[in-house]
Amino acid sequence: MTVESPRYQRVLLKIGGEALAGDSGYGIDDAVLSRVALEVKEVRDLGCEVALVLGGGNIFRGIAASAKGMERATADYMGMLATLINSLAMQEALERLGAQTRVMSALTVAQVAEPYIRRRATRHLEKGRIVIFAAGTGNPYFTTDTAASLRAMEIGAQVICKGTKVDGVYDADPMQVTGANRYQSLTYIEVLQQNLKVMDSTAISLCMDNNLPILVFSLLEPGNIKRVVLGESVGTLVHGGRA
Asked: Which secondary-structure segment (H or E) carries 103?
């Protein structure tokens, strides 16, 4: 039997909170959570070192609350706590499968998570543990996309794999526009110039400055996480070369 070899040795997987809600749109769908956890463990079992950043939009969105009048910093801290809830849920799902994990939080919550320390995070990955980065960057006004970019660079990840509800980046919202075209690849500059909704501009700029590729793919398609890590043609690749 041929042993599959991952294309990437260390990845950061960014998962939007909304994807964890499934069809309900709110909270955590246990079936989705369990499936994603199983796929992450399968990737780790291939020998790929995996770190995760989970959004919190299935529980609370700081930007949305701010738009309704809540003070922005307070709303963002609440959003960070939402990501911690998702991170603990993912940790539990992974450990039910026998995976070794660590949750590392940018906010001090010593009873439930380790503080984020870059060297310790790298060491956990080297020991085969799946590391889940919670609470964003620990600062308001920064999204979990920016946190994912920052953490990926700090741990030396080779790629950010962003799992979403759609199968890549389109020239228009495929949920609303019939015939929207999916890009196979894009440059960072094209994403910024066309204001494509890949990640926020701060996250894209960080990746561009450090030449860190972003692969956007559908989390709803079973097996896609493994396909991405094996290097199969899935989703849209954002990089520094020609598209």
From this structure: strand 101-105
